[in-house]
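hey can u check if this looks right to u? its 742 residues, i copy pasted from the old doc so theres a chance i mangled smth
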Amino acid sequence: MQFPVRQPLKNKGAVRSARARKLFPELHGAIGACALLTLASAHSSQAQALFGLRGGHSIHPGVTRSHSLGHMAENARLNLAVSLPARNQGALDSLLQQIYDPQSPNYHHYLTTQEYNAAFAPTEAQYSAVITYLKSQGFTVNSTYGNRMIVDVGAPISNIEQTFHVNMLVYQHPTENRTFFGPDTEPALDKAIPILGVTGLDNYSLPHSNAHVAPLAAKSKVALSSAGSGPGAQFISFDFRAAYAPKATLDGAGQTIGLFQFGSYFPSDIASYCTTTGLPPANITEVLLNGVSGSPAAGDNTLEQSLDIEMEHAMAPGANIRFYTGNNAADIWNQMAVENIAKQVSSSWSVSPPPSTLNQILQQMAAQGQSVFNASGDSGYSASPFGWDDNAYMTSVGGTNLSTNGGGGPLTSEDGWSGSSGYISPNFAIPSWQQGISMTANGGSTTQRNCPDVSMVATNIWCVYNNGGSGGVLGTSAASPLWAGFMALVNQQAAQHGKPNAGFINPAVYALGKGASYTTYFNDTTTGNNGKPAVTGYDLVTGWGSPKGQAMIDSLSGSANYSFVANENQSASFATPVDVAYGANSSYFYKYAIGGALTFNNATFGDPIAGVAKAGYSKPYVKSVNEGSAASFYQPIEAAYGANGHYFFNYGTTGTVTFTNAAWGGDPVANTAKAGYYMPYMECAGEGGSVTFSAPTDVAYGANGHYLFKHAVTGTVTFNTAVFGSDPLVGTYKFGYYRPSH
């Protein structure tokens, strides 16, 4: 962005860019002409001891190396985020180790936001002292936060200079065609006030995203993935689930995915993507911070925002999306932690330098069971990670080129994308969970943090953006939100089985990767190069690789499909519909679509394994909506309607289901509030595949919300158009699904 200066500085007439006005609206019209002033420290004549801020650097190191054009107008105002250090850091570090150690009694015993604040947040007295001090210096308080980690303030430039002992100057950017503002030195205080850092003192480095329009002329060289079901065989919608969650019937229902953003999006773009690709409408809530508008202007570049939403929605179409946007990175991250609503979060942006408070915010999120995914970047291997891209409390997501068995088909191979950024961090020592890996072949470090951790597809992706535009995009900006969507499936299954969220997944991911059977959980990428080679196991191109569907979901969620209910000869009552199993040692008898009381014994089930103590297990139907509402299902399901053990069942359906007495042809339990539930069918074959069923089975054939059903079949079923009588979705790779009849 450009700031006007007076004639002597030869920059008269330069103007700020529209993008800069969006990102920094508090400066619009506020920074006047520059006047050449002596660049002495404000109050340099006062010989006094000053106290540096506790977090170290608050400004980009490039600021003081740049050429100053003059002074910012002293009556201009600037909004800042002033942060405070967390308390009891040693105890917090120890607790986090325990929370993510499977052998600890505190394993996955997450803190509530209130518990975190009581034990580790700055005290009320500390928070009050900072606020009182800033007010006494002429600052206005704009916002406060429940974790007392940040206070948002605003003040004229003259007050900022006096308080922090700096001169606020305008500089010519050394590498970009713009001017920027910043202080002439790091801020310092007259008193030992507990201030960790100040975010917003300079705009040397603008927020950096990792989404790019695929260059058409170089597409054959850059976008190596193939082949999706979208325009030009690009990947869209259900292609991602077919590749990375091919047997998963979860959709993220009940989960909220958070998005870290600068700028907003056009809702019409998201609606168009859903309509074109067959996805249900997306449920998005915007959280607007720092006075930003939720309405982009015509001509705004919304590629990053639209891509992030569309990728999350494609992987977890039943999840809610919470879109956090502002112009101060510290505030956006802190709002996610304070709300503690989004249990999986994605960022495809980065800011340099990172806010001083970022690491402790990420630690709070880890303590609360929130997963944070960050795009590793699109510049290949580098010794200099940008901003927070190497932070040890984020899961760094690299990029791959993906090949599938046709549009909507399963993954056939992956190789490391040349643009996938990898790092050996200069800022963080190697974490305990990353130790014990041979780094000889991959060129990694045994002493410093290595990135990325995992990966997903980053090329040949079709997106709708910029108010009606569409086309191919590439970048780890796609891979990170896809992983956040995958995590919504993980946490949905965990919730179904009464398990806690997966939280910060790096310790679990590396434990799986270092195990002998790691290829059960990962699509290991062993070809490709970003300046470092992709090799067997961990590497600096794709980390451990991409997730292998249900096996990874089961492991990270800590649950298989059935959960323990009762021992042999004990009874249980099910208020909501369930499938049940009875047996031991891999020998079980099953009953499906149960409601009410059931005794787990041989008389009820038969004896699945003689002479062995047995037990009962259950797999619950998923609640969808309350009575009177409708829900849309894009995969085949069995639906249930009722309450308190009394239900009507639909053997197989897809699309929109209305849960009312009229729609179901009766009332399963009078004078009682009811609800709708569903049990997904399970995938059993690709198009053209055959499966033999020894017991009556309900089957479905199709893809992307379009299915044909058969009820109570036995014997061999081939999943093709000839057997089912017609093609449910022409031109798309289809699958076979099944559900035991009852």
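DSSP finds 17 helices and 38 strands in the chain.
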